[in-house]
Structure formats: structure tokens, C-alpha cells
Write a structure and sequence with these properties.
328 residues; alpha/beta; Rossmann fold; 2 domains; seven-stranded parallel β-sheet; five-stranded parallel β-sheet; globular
């Protein structure tokens, strides 16, 4: 039976992390399977969403939706504009959702909670079941303060309690265990799909493979991803060693914490002025960079999945990950 899915996520188009790319893969799969999707997402206040262009020719399911402009982008934590996301709806949005007639709601991460509550205040039926799709257990973030941990636990517990018949989806065993401690549920583990674009690129023959020269690190630039560890390694290796072995560090990622990102980028430039430093890149550009990479350095200490690890593997690049914490 075809579903009519109201999908709520802060990040979708204008992606800056694996959350956006994973949501795109999930929604694309729903539409290809014949389900209809009404997408409600955030977007930077100074950009368009490109939703309809993204959704063209996916069929046989149909996609409609709306984006809500937010004042802060590149963040999904409590310093994001989660309040603006929740308050950005209006009766026109509610009426559009009512005309769509969702049979189920999927809410991504804790930031979907207040959006869902807002719909309730505007008269959307509380009988529509909701599934909590957890891409990251935020209360377990590396470096959380007590206040941050308390904030995330409250919202993640509420999302677990709301979920239809305890239906919670997460990405790994460690996250399932963390969520089980918040509420009496048994989360289901669903691994994100390898992006279509990366899978296609991995299967394309390369007549003249490029030289393997890059030390790659592709993560958001923020403390939760421990990006500084990559720069510390580059610093320890030294510019002379890198030159002798024909290696160039390559740091790819959006700045989720501008101050932290500025420090990391400045340290990398001091350690190796020839290092490549790029913002979030397309799947095609990432594939091209990975083809040139010797190693993918993934420094996060607490990671549910690590999309880049899988994408690097698809293109034949090994990854260096932390072995003492929770990368699965």
C-alpha cells in the first residue's frame, strides 16, 4: 500500500553534512517505491531551496513540500535556528499538509519535535503516527556541557515517547542503546544507503587513474567531529615529510562552528600552506577527490555511521578511524 509521508528535517537541500545527503537518499527511495512525500525542511534565509528541481523525474511517487528560512545554517545542534524552524510555519502550510493528507510522519532528530508540536497547535490531527528517525544521538556528543546534555536528553526522550508504537529508527547499536536508556523502546537500526551518485562514480571505468596524493579528511568543522585531530597529525608529519612522499592534505567540510573552523583552517595553513581546504562539495567532486586519495582520515570520536567512510570504501580508499570509542 502506498504511503503519504510527511517528512520533517532541518537539513535537506543546501546540504552541509551527512544528515542532508542521507535524507535525500531516503526520500528518493520512498518516491521510487511509489510513496508520496510532503517534505518540510529548513533552508538558509538567503538561498532558495531547489526542492522541485531536486524532485523532478524521480517517480512514480510524487513529492511536494515547503522550506522554512532559518537565520543560522551549517548547524544542527542547539545553536542552530531550531526555534525559527518550528515557528516558521503558518496556516497556509498547515492547509497544504492537510490537503496532502499524510498517513505517517517521519521526524528527523530532536529538531523535529517543536515543528510537530506546532502542527498540533494549528489543528493537524494527533492521530497521524510519527516515526522518530534519529541520525545522531545529540546527548552523547563529544564535549557536551551538562546543560547541552540535559537539553538534548529532554527532546530526544520526548521524540521517543511520541513515536508510533515505539517505532524509532537509528543508525547503529551504540545509538540504539543510548535511546533505550531514555525510554522503553527497541530502536530499529537502518544503515543509510550509499548515495546513487557515489555508487555510479565507483562503477565507472577510469582509463587513466589519477595519482594517489591526497590525505583526505571530510567532516564538518566543529568540536563534535574532532576535526583538529587531523590537523594535529599533519602538523606532526611536517611539511618536509609530506613533500618527500608527494602527499597533500585535503580538508573538506562546512563550518558548523565558525570560530573553531577558523582556528583549524589557520593551523592547517601554518602546518602545510599547500594543503587544500574546501567547503562542502558535491558527490561528483568528492568522488574525484577520493580517487586521488591515499587515506581517508575520519577523526570523530563518537560517530553513528560515518557516511564518508563508506563512500571512501566504495572508491577503494581505506579510512583511519578512532578505535577506542564508538565508530561502528
Amino acid at each position: 500500500m502506498a504511503l503519504k509521508v510527511l517528512y520533517i528535517t532541518m537539513e535537506f537541500t543546501n546540504s552541509f553534512s551527512g544528515n542532508g545527503t542521507a535524507s535525500q537518499s531516503f526520500v528518493r527511495s520512498l518516491i521510487r517505491l511509489g510513496h508520496d512525500v510532503f517534505l518540510l525542511c529548513g533552508r538558509p534565509h538567503d538561498r532558495t531551496d531547489g526542492l522541485m528541481e531536486w524532485a523532478s523525474n524521480l517517480g512514480p511517487g510524487k513529492m511536494s513540500g515547503r522550506s522554512i528560512p532559518v537565520s543560522v545554517w551549517n548547524r544542527l545542534d542547539m545553536l542552530s535556528d531550531w526555534q525559527g524552524f518550528a515557528a516558521g510555519g503558518d496556516m497556509a502550510l498547515v492547509q497544504a499538509v492537510q490537503r496532502f493528507g499524510p498517513s505517517i510522519i517521519v521526524g528527523v532528530d530532536w529538531s523535529a519535535l517543536d515543528v510537530y508540536k506546532a502542527f498540533g497547535k494549528w489543528g493537524l490531527s494527533a492521530d497521524i503516527p510519527i516515526i522518530y528517525y534519529n541520525y545522531r544521538v545529540f546527548h552523547a556528543n563529544t564535549g557536551n556541557t551538562e546543560e547541552e546534555t540535559r537539553f538534548y536528553k529532554e527532546r530526544e526522550r520526548a521524540m521517543c515517547a511520541l513515536s508510533a508504537q515505539g517505532t524509532v529508527i537509528c543508525l547503529c547499536k551504540a545509538d540504539a542503546s543510548s535511546l533505550r536508556q531514555l525510554h522503553d523502546i527497541t530502536p530499529r537500526i537502518l544503515l543509510p544507503a550509499l548515495r546513487d551518485e557515489v555508487a555510479c562514480n565507483a562503477q565507472k571505468p577510469v582509463p587513466s587513474p589519477p595519482a594517489k596524493e591526497l590525505l583526505m579528511c571530510c567532516v564538518r568543522l566543529g568540536p563534535d567531529k574532532n576535526t583538529k585531530a587531523f590537523v594535529d597529525v599533519v602538523e606532526a608529519l611536517g611539511e618536509r615529510f609530506l613533500q618527500e612522499h608527494g602527499l597533500t592534505p585535503c580538508l573538506v567540510g562546512a563550518a558548523s562552528d565558525p570560530g573553531y573552523a577558523a582556528e583549524v583552517r589557520a593551523q592547517l595553513h601554518r602546518a602545510c600552506p599547500s594543503a587544500l581546504q574546501l567547503d562542502f562539495v558535491s558527490a561528483d567532486d568528492l568522488s574525484a577527490l577520493l580517487r586521488r586519495s591515499v587515506l581517508n582520515f575520519h577523526p570523530a570520536l563518537n560517530e553513528a555511521y560515518g557516511m564518508t567512510i563508506v563512500e571512501a570504501a566504495a572508491l577503494g580508499v581505506p579510512s583511519l578511524v578512532d578505535s577506542g570509542h564508538m565508530i561502528e
